[in-house]
Design goal:
The chain is an all-alpha fold. Helices cover 69% and strands 0% of the residues. The protein has ten helices and no strands. Helix 3 crosses helix 6.
Length: 176
Amino acid sequence: KKITDTVMTMILQCEPRDIRIKILENFIDIAHQCVLLRNFSALFSIAFSALASAAIRNLASTWEGVSPHHHQLFQQFLDITHPANNYKIFRKLLKTSNNPTVPFLQIYMGEFLIMNEVNPDYLKKGLINLQKRRLIYRELEEIRYFQNRKYNLTDIPELISFFLNYETGHVDDFYM
């Protein structure tokens, strides 16, 4: 949420159109780095929740100034984050990743919710539904697999401090 609010605030509070275009393109570049680093959590926050939000998408004159290259990258992000076929493109990228990866955990939470709602805890005669437990275990193992693959990145304290202390607008204000 902090990433989404920061991206939206930085874009929407910028007045000169040419500066807003540069900020938007910079966030598209950052989202591209997230794809390269397999940080899908940040990608969903930047591209899907912030840049694809109504408040940002309605900046027609700003989007007109965005370069074709950045439009193409943004479309790729929309394809990755699109829920079509149960996030087929995102899931394919997850399965083919041998590098450290930060998955978008909300999709897993949705999976757990569906597994819990669709599959009973007990079968006839009070038997424990082991198939339900296996499904949950597989999802947990996939998450654990990604947790065990570590990045070799260096912290930049100034950048971390900037984003942690950045005053974001209230989301409701973006839609007024």
